[in-house]
Amino acid sequence: MKIVRTLLHDVLLLRPRIPSEGGRELTIDRSELERVGIVQPFVQDNHSRSTRNVLRGLHYQIEHAQGKLVRVIRGEIFDVVVDLRLGSPTFGQSAALHLLAGEGLLLWIPPGYAHGFQVLSAEADFLYSVTDYRFPEHERILLWSDPALAIPWPVRDVEPILSPKDQQGTPFAATVAMLEAKRP
Length: 184
Hints:
It is a single chain. The protein is mainly beta. The chain has a single domain (about 1-180), classed as Sandwich (Jelly Rolls). Helix content is about 10%, strand content about 35%. The chain has helices at about 30-35, 170-180; strands spanning about 1-5, 10-15, 45-50, 55-60, 70-75, 75-85, 95-100, 105-110, 115-120, 125-130, 140. The strands form 2 sheets. Strands 1-2-8-5-10-3 form a 6-stranded antiparallel sheet, with no helix packed on it. Strands 7-6-9-4-11 form a 5-stranded antiparallel sheet, with no helix packed on it. The longest helix is centred in the last third of the chain and has 11 residues, at about 170-180. Keywords: Isomerase. This is dTDP-4-dehydrorhamnose 3,5-epimerase. Pathway: Carbohydrate biosynthesis; dTDP-L-rhamnose biosynthesis. It is an enzyme of class 5 (isomerase).
């Protein structure tokens, strides 16, 4: 496994070894992950399927923060992370990239980041392994369209398709106030 690049503090874009002709593909190997600094165990694998212009996020958990190892296996998405770790050198910064099926890339998002994506292809299948379970009572949503985040979403000429939950995102300033109030 090779680190292709670092997007923000601890966020990694990874390229696993891919066979040249046929054969199987080894994408997740514990020793390879540990070699690049990913030591958290994964407790659950999830599969998300969405259609063009669906926008999910920006999701995070205030307790039981989840690290995520994500991959697109069909289609194309615009993937976004926002650092919500108080004291991090990249706190409040966002990073975005296109993930395309067939490239074989994995994105490591450590615990403490908000995460979201917009589907750019007709359909997309998105796989992600998480380091902690989903706790609905701890789920929060950072407002995807908050100008303070300056995320260059590719939704300029159409309205994104948002779930009712994703329509209720909290602005960044209010999120910071809540995180600071919860700090021990």
